[in-house]
Amino acid sequence: MKISIVLPIYNEAENIPILYKELVSVLNREKVAYEIIAVNDASEDNSLKVLKDIAIKDKNVKVINFRFNSGQTAAMSAGIKYATGDVIIPMDADLQNDPADIPKFLFKLAEGHDVVSGWRLNRQDKVIMRKIPSKVANWLIRGITGVKVHDYGCSMKAYKRDSIQGVQLYGEMHRFIPAYLAWHGGRVAEIVVNHRPRVHGVTKYGISRTFKVLLDLIVVKFLSRYMNRPMHFFGGLGFVSLGLGVLAGLTAIILKILHLRDFVSTPLPVFSALLIIVGVQLAAMGVIAEMLMRVYYESQDKAPYRIAETINFQV
Ligand code: UDP
Ligand code: MG
To answer: pTM for the whole thing?
Structure first.
């Protein structure tokens, strides 16, 4: 078995050598083959130089260097793409996640899970700006995805490679991978992990990330439920809007015929026109989305299903 550790790195020069030492000591004790994939997300400090110095001496350390800052999710996604291990463990490079937890993740995966998510029960971050927003966000994500993970935001997670490779990550979406995998038949488990305060360097995020996470959540939810049939979503809304528009129009006409209300003395004609236009637009959007969906699947040879195994087929 081989393990791939994936580290997104943005301005962590002081943390890298300490983390490297901790990782090597834990991984050697486990007596498994491993690689450490460090993705330098265009750091402005000395991080790249520090990584290169380590990589020259240790061939298990592989470095991917981004041309420009692309964000933690992108860095993680690149690391996962190039990982060759059977197990992939991404973690923060700022020493907040603890390499000493790696054996616990491996143990849990070996029980037969596809993903093991870390839970920072004793999180060492600011209460008002980070911990409370995170509690609310996690509660919302659990409600909307229906997957009961406590701490979606914890970057330290472990994946079986077969289950994660091929999953495309955008925006802040790395945190939704457990939910995504659960929807596609993956078995998800959770373990409590150690969390340490940041000593060197500064956090790259503030409260605004919570909102970005929630926007991404809507996208993930939409894509998972309606990706294959966008017309059912847009068309459904369009029907409702069109129906209400026709109803409002008819009501206005009846009121006029019965001499109860003139067209100009009720807002109904305006509503009617608006709702009918919106309804037609939504239906048209549904058709466009259907076309996009076909381009998406067919251009990449993707299928709207995932096969776990086949028996007696010649490949
Ligand atoms: N990171 C990155 N690119 C970015 C921002 C952050 O690769 O644009 C890395 C960062 O170096 C760290 C991890 O993502 O290893 C988490 O970042 P941070 O510790 O700032 O987040 P927090 O722990 O405060 O949520
Ligand atoms: Mg951190």
So the answer is: 0.84
What is the rounded distance in angstroms from the CA atom of residue 195 to the CA atom of residue 126?
A: 13
Does residue 69 line the site of ligand 1, with CB under 6 A? yes
Element at 271 (helix H, strand E)? helix 268-299
Q: Give the number of the ligand closest to the Cα of residue 14.
A: 1
Ligand 1 atom closest to 96 (CA): 23
pLDDT digits (tens, 9 = 90+) for 166-193: 777 777 788 899 998 898 889 999 999 9
Q: What are the structural domains of the chain?
A: 2-225 (3.90.550.10), 230-299 (no CATH)
Question: How many CB atoms within 10 Å of residue 24?
Answer: 17
Give the DSSP letter of residue 219.
Answer: H
Cβ atoms within 10 A of the Cβ of 48, count?
19
Please, are residues 216 and 153 in contact by the beta-carbon 8 Å criterion? no
- Residues with Cβ < 8 Å from 117, sequence gap 6 or more? 149, 151, 152, 154, 157, 178, 188, 189, 190, 191
Q: Retrieve residue 273's tokens.
A: 């026109």
The Cα 100–Cα 30 span in angstroms is: 11
* pLDDT, tens digit (0-9, with 9 covering 90-100), for 194-209: 999 999 999 998 888 8
Q: Identity (one letter) of the amino acid at 294?
A: R
In this prediction, residue 282 carries a pLDDT of 97
Contact indicator for 200, 6 with CB cutoff of 8 Å: no
User: 196 alpha carbon to ligand 1 midpoint, in Å?
Assistant: 14
Residue 204 Cα to ligand 1 midpoint, Å, equals: 6
Q: Is 9 in the pocket of ligand 1 (CB under 6 A)?
A: yes
* Whole-number Å distance between alpha carbons of 174 and 177: 6
Residue 293 neighbours by CB under 8 Å, 6+ apart: 227, 228, 230
| 151 close to ligand 1 (CB < 6 Angstrom) | no
> Relative to the CA of 39, which ligand 1 atom is closest?
7
